[in-house]
Structure formats: C-alpha cells, structure tokens
Write a structure and sequence with these properties.
The chain is an alpha/beta fold. 28% of the residues lie in helices and 19% in strands. The chain has eleven helices and twelve strands. Strand 4 and strand 5 form a beta hairpin. The protein starts with 23 loop residues before the first strand and ends in a 9-residue tail after the last helix.
Length: 342
C-alpha cells in the first residue's frame, strides 16, 4: 500500500483570532510510493506558530533537536530558516496519516506547489533549486562534484548568475552527462555458456544471475544497476544465442532483442573460442567487443577489452572502457557549463 496525504485544504485568511498554525504549510518530500525507514516532511511559513499549535517544543534557527511529534512518534526537527523546518519521523503509513491529521487540526495546510522552487524552498533561486533536485536524483557518484561546480561554471560562461532559461552551449555533451543522473541502459549479448552471467555477478558484486555449465541457463533477460568507473548503468544480461534452442528460450531471446534498439551501449561478448555475435540488422546503438575468460587465453578476434570474471583480471579496466563508451573523458574534464535541467 502507498501513503497518501490527506485531502487538500484551503487555508483561511488569517485574522487576529486565528490559531498560530494558520499561515504554515506542510509537504511530504520523501517518496510515498517507495517509502524507506525515515520520512522527510517540510514545514514552511509560520513555523513557530505551527510548532506551538502542534505542541512541539521550539527549535532555534540553525539548530537540530530530537522532539516528540504530537504523541505519534519521535523524530528530528531541523530548523533551516525562520520560515522553514524539516521533520524526519519514521515512514510508517499510519504514522504519516496521523501526523497529517494533526497538521490539519493545527491549521497547517497541505502544500501542493509542485514547482522545483516549491520542492526546494531552501534554495536562493530557481537555478539552485534545480541544482538541488539534480543532486538528489543523480544515480552516479561522478555527478555530484560536477553538479556542485555548475553555478561557478555558468557564471564564468555568462558573466552573471545563471537562470533556467540559458541556452545549451553543447546539447550533445549535456545529453551524455545526463547519464550521470539517469542510468543509461547497457545490453550484454553473446553465445550461450561463455560467462555472461558470471561477468554480471562480478560487476554487481553479488549473485544477480544464475550461473551453470549448462547452456541456456539464462532464459530471460536479467538486469542490475552496475557501477562502471563512477557511472551507474542499468546492465541487462540477455539469454545466450545458440542453434537448436527450445521454444521458451527463443521467445526469451526475441524479447531481449527488442531491447537492443533502446540500448545506449551494446556489449558484444565472446571468449577465446567463441567470437561475439553479430547484431540484428537495423540496430544502430554503439557497441564494444569484450573477450571473457582471459585466464583461459586471449582470442584471435579483435576486442576492446579482455577480462576474467572468475579471477577479476581486467574488471577495473573494463569499467573505464565502458564508461568512456557512454561518457567520454572530454565530457567530464571540459570546463564548459552543463545544462543539467529540463
């Protein structure tokens, strides 16, 4: 079940006899559809009045305190500004429901402003709000320092503080850098029984795909998020291609083939005795050839990287090679600004 906030309310005009909570709004900032252990709630406006009405002890601006939250839970209250506080109760559905009801009784209305500035009211500008949102969404470690540098890079480029209306100096680079925020899709293809699943498990650092000596073990495509030299990608391990495969395996392969046109990068896998498969006609995604089982010998066919998933040989270099295929070094080292929003 998902946590739904209480129905929206209309804030009455504040008068001399109105309760102190009127003039304050709240919003759930953590995902309701995928709740974690801790929720993040935001109070904005007349925070002092709202806390008083709710019976929560005051928290000075710039301070963080553990507080009883209306008898429902105990959580941390962070006072960001006079008009902004962050509450972090537990994320249980009933806890959030009761807190929402308590806010309603105190005249603290639900904030439905879904603009980027509404979601990040602590930001000094729309640009900073978009920057904070990108940092919050970014999947890849390499994204953070680059995003933090953007206000300076844009100001140097423009000679003034940036806004969200700036023209993109390099749309192609911005699209590639966008892979730091939203993981690109990498599809691995190859013949049966050459170690594709073993490679995925090595890259993931855990057992994601079934591994066996029997060809056709992988009957459907298997996916996992994988860190390739600081770039998080969605790695898709497809069934092996082999003659005489049973109908169920052929159907799974057809489903996997449908992913190829959507791939940002295709990794064509082989080993010493088995060259990479040819891609179906019409597939235009860039591809790299990788030789597996390097501990058993190097292949005669040309390849971009050679690894042994069993021993770990070449795995770090493979990560760099694949990351460069998706996000070249020049994109990361350029001093040009990045249009990371929109």
């Amino acid at each position: 079940m998902t946590t739904e906030p209480p129905p929206p309310q209309t804030a009455p005009a504040r008068g001399a006899g109105d309760p102190p909570g009127v003039g304050c709004s709240w919003r759930l900032c953590s995902p309701a559809e995928r709740p974690g252990a801790i929720a993040v709630l935001q109070l904005r406006g007349d925070v002092d009045g709202a806390l008083e009405r709710l019976g929560i002890a005051p928290v000075p601006v710039g301070q963080v305190r553990l507080r009883d939250l209306v008898g429902v839970d105990r959580g941390v209250v962070s006072r960001v500004r006079t008009d902004l506080a962050i509450l972090t109760p537990h994320a249980g559905q009933e806890i959030l429901r009761q807190l929402g009801a308590a806010f309603s009784r105190a005249g603290v209305v639900l904030d439905r402003d879904d603009s980027v500035r509404g979601r990040f009211p602590e930001a000094a500008s729309d640009f900073e709000a978009a920057q904070l949102e990108a940092i919050a969404r970014a999947a890849s470690p390499r994204a953070i320092d680059l995003l933090l540098a953007q206000p300076r890079l844009w100001s140097e480029h423009l000679g003034r503080p940036p806004t969200l209306g700036e023209e993109d100096p390099d749309p192609g680079r911005s699209a590639r850098l966008g892979r730091l925020i939203t993981p690109p899709m990498v599809v691995a293809v190859g013949e049966s029984n050459i170690g594709k699943s073993t490679l995925l498990n090595r890259l993931s650092g855990r057992a994601v795909a079934a591994v066996a000596d029997e060809p056709g073990t992988t009957r459907d495509h298997v996916g996992s998020l994988v860190d390739l030299d600081g770039l998080i990608v969605r790695w898709v391990d497809t069934p092996g291609r082999r003659a005489g495969a049973p109908e169920a395996e052929r159907e799974a392969l057809a489903i996997a083939n449908a992913l190829l046109p959507q791939a940002d990068l295709i990794v064509r896998l082989g080993d010493r005795d088995t060259p990479p498969v040819e891609l179906p006609p019409g597939v235009s995604a860039p591809s790299l050839a990788v030789a597996l089982r390097a501990d058993r010998g190097r292949p005669a066919w040309g390849h971009d990287a050679s690894v042994s998933a069993a021993t770990g040989e070449g795995i770090a270099g493979l990560g760099v090679c694949l990351r460069r295929g998706l996000l070249p070094d020049a994109d990361l080292s350029s001093g040009a600004p990045w249009r990371f929003w929109g």
